[in-house]
Design goal:
Length: about 290
């Protein structure tokens, strides 16, 4: 039975959002997808995207990797590479795109983009024999709620200093400490507004609590989502999940391939110097206090 109360996970980059998505994906009733943001379905040069041409590329390609090599538009290319993380290959994408066109949708408006994301997530849900779907979301909550008023939202909150240390030492974020602080503040305060609205199903998950008391915190999350706790969620790294087969290159792959541990809590004490912290605090101090980190 299809439960159309999707689960959306938010979290500023390097806050543990991918970990939470993977834990949820290990639940026998939930199929989670990764980073399928609606803005990625807007052409990066703002030219009109011809969906029939995209269908043709998908149809004529042996697999998704081959298809994305032919897609020159950066945003669309990234979106379909991320579809692969959810187990969708080029033939699946072609079929879903055809259905999207037949149903009168395109990518020109927010609804069309979100409905296609739903198709991708539901496809994974059905393929895995589950009954509920979800994914990592952007912070345009009003858009999600306009289509799925019964949706559930979770935000991963992590000590901003550890987020700063991780972004400065992982990947290629190329942001200054004050810019990272601004992103951390905006993401968490934006969700706090949602959290304080009693008419919306929203829950804050603190990274430190999750990694220090995983079973206790996961049970709380299950209660919020109105699903039974399942021990597979603690054993997520041993499950046959699509991210492990198709997610090579994901920045969080090393962490989600191992049991939960708290070794990265407080990493900022060794990784950050006083000048970096000063820049960060100049923007984030009040919000750090609000969230109990100072």
């Amino acid at each position: 039975m299809f439960n159309n109360s999707p689960i959306f996970v938010r979290g500023y980059s390097r806050s543990g959002g991918t970990l939470l998505v993977t834990i949820l994906d290990a639940h026998p009733e939930i199929a989670m997808s990764y980073e399928l943001y609606p803005n990625l379905l807007i052409s990066d040069d703002r030219t009109e995207l011809e969906l029939p041409q995209l269908v043709k590329i998908m149809d004529e390609s042996k697999n998704m990797k081959g298809a994305t090599k032919k897609i020159k538009d950066r945003n669309i290319n990234v979106f379909f590479k991320r579809c692969l993380r959810g187990g969708l290959d080029s033939k699946d994408a072609a079929r879903l795109l055809k259905k999207h066109i037949d149903d009168g949708f395109d990518f020109k408006d927010t609804k069309g983009r979100l409905k296609f994301i739903e198709r991708c997530c539901v496809e994974k849900m059905k393929a895995s024999g589950k009954s509920r779907w979800g994914l990592k979301c952007s912070n345009q909550y009003e858009n999600y709620l306009s289509i799925w008023p019964g949706a559930y939202f979770l935000n991963m909150v992590r000590d901003g200093r550890d987020v700063l240390a991780s972004q400065l030492n992982t990947g290629s974020f190329n942001k200054t400490p004050s810019e990272i602080a601004k992103g951390w503040v905006n993401t968490n305060l934006r969700f706090r507004e949602l959290f304080e609205n009693k008419n919306i199903r929203a829950c804050e998950v603190f990274y430190e609590s999750l990694v220090n008391k995983p079973e206790e915190e996961i049970k709380k999350i299950c209660c919020f989502l109105n699903i039974p706790f399942d021990s597979a969620m603690l054993n997520f790294y041993n499950q046959d999940l699509s991210i492990y087969e198709h997610g090579m290159g994901h920045l969080s792959m090393d962490r989600i391939s191992k049991p939960i541990d708290s070794s990265r809590v407080g990493r900022w004490k060794e990784d950050l110097n006083e000048n970096v912290l000063k820049d960060f605090y100049s923007v984030a101090r009040d919000t750090m206090i609000k969230f109990g980190y100072l």
